[in-house]
Design brief:
CATH class: Alpha Beta
Shape: globular
CATH architecture: 3-Layer(aba) Sandwich
Radius of gyration: 21 Å
CATH superfamily: DD-peptidase/beta-lactamase superfamily
Protein name: Beta-lactamase family protein
Number of strands: 15
Strand content: 15-25%
InterPro entries: AmpC-like (IPR050491), Beta-lactam-related (IPR001466), Beta-lactam/transpept-like (IPR012338)
Order of helices and strands: HEEEEEHHHHHEEEEHHEEEEEEH
Distance between the termini: 27 Å
Keywords: Signal
Largest sheet: 6 strands, antiparallel
CATH topology: Beta-lactamase
């Protein structure tokens, strides 16, 4: 009887190991369809289940010129995943009683055109209608200039609006630049300092930064573009331009710490956290699938929270499935390799695996 029980346990463990190995090979194969050049720019991917890392690998090179292999510890620019941090910073200030998401932005930026009709909520949900500065032809004139937040806001604030506040959902980087400026005005700190002291340090994110090309960043992954003749170093921009809409850097491990901090209410109380992850409605009553800094979609019928990022030389994607506590993060050091569909497909595999 004991022998049969022991054999059954051994068989169960053996089958679990075999299944895990098969799943790992499946995920490896999925990633290498895109990251197929071991001598080209690389990426790092991680899967966690219930806070425990179950897959963590890197592919390709972190630096082509020095022939340095990518590791899961490398630091990447995360582009628009920055918006998650900006939205949580706003909610932290609301939690402290320093602002309200229903406040008009004219309360903080007196001379903003029609600022009495545009609320912080509109900015957070991409429903403000203000002009997205990344779509303006004049963007090339400031891309490499040091821009104060006020200068960035001045750059686009007098442009004609695309629609009335609350009328449509249209992804908008300008809204999140305005939010960064409001964070500075309300907190009395720079955006960089606020994020570092109130989020990175509290969450234990010791390898996350406000992006810089001058500061020495240990284990920095270098960014690349792909041209007809091969890879080239990324275009240089001044990070004061994307600012609070896309200027943070992180690692796969730190992004898991971020997810844990959100789950454990380390940064926000449950009421404020709920605001970030609920769907909202347009003026017409139509619901749209974006909260505050996250797209709210589903993976094979399971609700998820997701967001990607793209900035010169880098792409990123994170998917969280709250029902199963699955987090998948993919970071790429070439904007020629998108981790978006790979990360979503990995999440599907992980979801199927835990539901067996």
């Amino acid at each position: 009887m004991i022998t049969i029980k022991l054999f059954s346990i051994f068989l169960l463990l053996f089958c679990s190991t075999i299944d895990a190995q098969l799943q790992e090979k499946k995920i490896d194969s999925l990633i290498t369809t895109e990251f197929n050049d071991p001598n080209g720019p690389g990426g790092a991917f991680m899967i966690s289940h219930k806070g425990k890392t179950i897959y963590r690998k890197a592919f390709g090179k972190a630096n082509l010129e020095l022939n340095v292999n990518m590791t899961p510890d490398n630091v990447f620019q995360i582009g628009s995943m920055t918006k998650q941090f900006t939205s949580v910073a706003v909610l932290m200030l609301e939690q402290q009683g320093k602002l309200n998401v229903n406040d008009p932005i004219s309360k903080y930026i007196k001379d903003y055109p029609s600022g009495d009709k545009i609320t912080i909520h509109h900015l957070l949900t991409h429903t403000s209608g203000i002009k997205d500065f990344t779509k303006m032809k004049a963007i090339s004139t400031i891309a490499q200039k040091e821009m104060k937040p006020e200068m960035m806001v001045d750059f686009f604030k007098n442009e004609p609006v695309d629609f009335a506040p609350g009328e449509k959902f249209e992804y908008n980087n300008s809204g999140y630049v305005v939010l960064g400026y409001i964070i500075e005005l309300v907190s009395g700190q720079t955006y960089e300092d606020f994020i570092k002291k109130n989020i990175f340090e509290k969450a234990g994110m010791t390898h996350s930064y406000y992006a810089t090309d001058r500061q020495i960043i240990p284990k920095r992954a270098y960014g690349y573009h792909q041209k007809e003749h091969g890879f080239v170093n990324k275009t240089v921009i001044n990070f004061s331009v994307p600012f609070s809409s896309g200027s943070l850097m992180s690692t796969v491990d730190d992004m898991l710490k971020w997810q844990k901090a959100l789950n454990q209410n380390t940064l926000l109380n449950p009421a404020e956290t709920k605001k970030a992850f609920q769907k909202y409605r347009l003026n017409s009553g139509e619901e749209f699938t974006y909260g505050y800094g996250w797209h709210l979609k589903d993976i094979n019928g399971s609700p998820d929270r997701e967001h990607g990022g793209s900035i010169f030389g880098f792409k990123s994607m994170g998917v969280y499935i709250p029902g199963e506590d699955i987090y998948v993060i993919g970071l790429s050091s070439c904007d020629c390799h998108s981790p978006t569909e790979i990360t979503r497909n990995i999440a599907k595999i992980a979801l199927q695996s835990v539901k067996k």
